[in-house]
Structures are given as structure tokens and as C-alpha cells.
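Re: the 212-residue chain
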Amino acid sequence: MKLILPLLLICFSFGCKKSEKITENISESKPTTQLIENPIDFYEKLSNAAISIINPDVVYTPSYVSIKYPNGDVPAKTGVCNDVVIRAYRKLGIDLQKKVHEDMKTNFSKYPKTWGLKTTDKNIDHRRVPNLEVFFARKGKTLSITKNTSDYKTGDIVTWLLAGDAIPHVGIVTHIKSNNGNPMIVHNVGSGQVLEDCLLSWKIVGHYKYSN
């Protein structure tokens, strides 16, 4: 138990860590399509960007890392769930590191105090799911949370709570449908940056659109 608690605290700081309990309900459905050939809006472009960074070799690495600012990133073959979102948006010219930092700097009181911080930290603030939830709610559009998969559209951002509501997680809804018609998600729950049918695998707690 002494080892489990610190692990959960590390995971909570960033997103989520793979375990049998977390991944047991994920469908192995295979995608039937790939990139949208001629995306018509930002959200289709975001879906394409998310799919383009799929890489199961990315090692889930929840350690604190000092990175440059702006446009900083951890090593390409490492990352957590937040890094999927950060990397996809960056392909469209949006630097969430800078965006989140600037908003937190002027609106620090509106962001979670979970980590006991008294000021911003450019290295980590944008890599924490609760901070992204606040940012997307403030700067984007908050959408309804339902169990109807058709309510989740291409380019939406979804957040969940895993492992008994202990671990936050985030992913991007793509245009690709699973064999049973569910929109597939690009995320990293511990098996790399992958595409999976997992929208309803966990408790959904956030649903957003953000296009700058």
C-alpha cells in the first residue's frame, strides 16, 4: 500500500498510468478509415493531427521534466495523456504550454490548488489534466456529458476519472469509428499514443471544444 499511494499521486499529477483495472474495458476494434483527405474545419484537422502522432512506442513517463518555453516538449518517445493533446494542438500551431501559462498567470485563483503551488510552473502546468479542464472551459466551449456516443464529435476533448475516480485522464475524439460505431479516441493510458474504442470505458467528467 505504501508503494501504491505515491504512484497514484504521481499519476494524478499528470494523467493516468496503465493497469489491468484501467484498461480491461477497452475494445480492440480496428479503425476502418484513416486521415480525412480534405479536412473542412479545425476539428477535422485536429483529428488528423491526433491520428498522425499515434505511436505505441511512446513510453508513459510521469516524471517531472524541465522543458523550454514556449513550445517545450518532453522527449518524443515519452509522455503522458496530456502530451497527446499538447502535441496534436501544436501541429496546428497552438502551443498549449504558452496558452495555459498565460491564462494561469493572470487568473491563478481559478485553477486547482491540488499541488500546493503558489505560482505558475511553465514545465508542468499544461501537462496536468485538471488545469487543461479549467483552460478548455474558460477559453473553449463546455459540452454536455452523456453516455450517448453520437454526442461526441470529431475534435472534441474528453476527460475521465479512472481507478475509482482517483486518476484524471484526457483524450481526443477522432472521426474514425470502431466496428460498433463508436468514435475512437487517441490517448495514452500507458500503452503509448494509441487509437482505441474507449470513450465509455471510464467515467466521463469533461467534454470540450477548443480551437483557439
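The longest helix spans residues 4-14.
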